[in-house]
Write a structure and sequence with these properties.
Low-confidence stretches: 1-50
GO molecular function, one term: hydrolase activity
Helix content: 25-40%
Oligomer: single chain
Radius of gyration: 20 Å
Number of domains: 1
Protein name: Probable conserved hypothetical Ustilaginaceae-specific protein
Structural class: alpha/beta
Number of helices: 10
């Protein structure tokens, strides 16, 4: 399998830029700028699909009028083909790979490109960095990082700053001498998404089909792939079995949360800007969250984010806390511009201007940046503090 050099190609980039310009005009002029039918059809190659609605009233007037967009939180199924796992498996689209994509991925991961197949027989690939300092006597942790939709790990992972500390960052709270970690960067598939344009199709993860039953022949193909990727890493480098961690960005964050909550042997997850993995605002087959394991998860959100992600993330956190009081959930809300921490857990709040399932300029800009200044004290600190117990499992929540 070859990773795409053009995963965020000219068409997708044009859509993003056009959306930013329209949102900027909305905020500046106080009006809704319509999206053209031509633009909507350009990426999908078919009939126009629902686009990101623009929040009304604009950012500057809402605090004055007290009128805010309706909350993006939804708990009602509207789909006609929902099943016990939520949505049907995502439809696979045409191949978006390029001949030199694997070389791009290799250059940013300092490791090897591993090719395999998932449980459907489809070819998959990942970047695997086996830290040479990891030994049988002193195995290092393994970090699994899932990229956002539309943007391959070749483009997104370098923005995080994680690779820069692969040999120096401690993820072990019991042995200060064990610095560094190995990591894997699995690549998603080109599928349909339950997101608005421009993210309705493209590279990503199917967190809407929530079949994580390993005994099922219809296991989610992305889950199957991540399972195999972790097994491969463990077979080719010493891995601290109590410290296999998940992380991810946006769609990859949602998949990381879903995977961590339903996979035995994952120590913890710390993710950025995750849509609710069970009840995203655009999901026609929402479900009540049902984590199988009490895996600690930290969800970092922008005070203002795209399509109400902070608001739905806060609802997800509160709902799990109410139904699973002992579950170690952590919510961190950061400043949209500076990434400074604004609130945590029960004291965290989201900007009501951005609570709707719509586009807001500053939320879009924030969503497209990884808060690297929070790596050490927010992402890595949470992972380091939450190794698996000595039993090797968190057990049910």
């Amino acid at each position: 399998m070859q990773q795409s050099r053009n995963a965020l190609g000219p068409a997708s980039l044009l859509l993003w830029v056009s959306l930013v310009l329209q949102l900027f005009a909305q905020q500046t002029l106080g009006s809704v700028v319509p999206v053209t039918e031509d633009l909507l059809g350009r990426q999908s190659g078919g009939p126009p699909v629902p686009n990101i609605p623009l929040c009304v009233p604009p950012l500057l007037t809402s605090p004055l009028t007290g009128k805010y967009p309706p909350s993006a939180v939804t708990t009602v199924q509207t789909g006609k083909n929902c099943n016990q796992y939520g949505d049907p498996p995502a439809r696979i689209l045409s191949n978006i790979e390029s001949p030199d994509g694997l070389q791009d991925l290799l250059q940013i991961c300092h490791g090897e490109i591993v090719q395999m197949t998932d449980n459907t027989g489809k070819p998959r690939a990942m970047c695997f960095y086996a830290n040479p300092k990891s030994t049988k006597d002193k195995p290092l942790p393994l970090l699994v990082w899932l990229h956002p939709s539309l943007v391959s790990p070749s483009y997104s992972f370098p923005l995080t700053g994680i690779d820069l500390v692969r040999d120096t960052q401690s993820l072990n709270n019991e042995d200060a001498s064990r610095l560094g970690f190995s990591y894997i960067l699995p690549a998603g598939r080109n599928t349909e998404h339950q997101y608005p344009v421009p993210d309705n199709v493209g590279l990503g993860w199917d967190n809407w089909y929530r079949n994580l039953d390993r005994s099922s022949p219809a296991l989610n193909a992305d889950v199957s792939f991540v399972d195999k990727a972790i097994s491969y890493a463990k077979a080719h480098v010493p891995v601290d079995s109590r410290r296999v961690f998940m992380s991810g960005w946006s769609n990859g964050a949602a998949m990381s949360e879903l995977y961590a909550a339903n996979t035995d042997g994952i120590a913890a997850a710390a993710v950025y800007s995750a849509p609710d993995p069970y009840r995203d605002s655009q999901d026609p087959c929402t479900q009540v969250p049902y984590p199988k394991f009490a895996t600690p998860v930290r969800d970092v959100h922008n005070y203002c984010d795209l399509i109400g992600i902070c608001t739905t993330g806060q609802y997800y956190y509160a709902d799990l806390k109410k139904r699973y009081p002992a579950l170690k959930q952590s919510l961190v809300v950061i400043d949209t511009l500076t990434a400074a921490i604004k609130g945590t857990d029960a004291s965290a709040s989201c900007d009501p201007v951005c609570q709707g399932a719509c586009g807001v300029t500053q939320g879009l800009v924030a969503h497209l940046r990884w808060p690297a200044t929070r790596n050490t004290d927010t992402f890595f600190a949470f992972l380091r503090s939450n190794p698996l117990p000595s039993s090797g499992t968190w057990g049910p929540p």
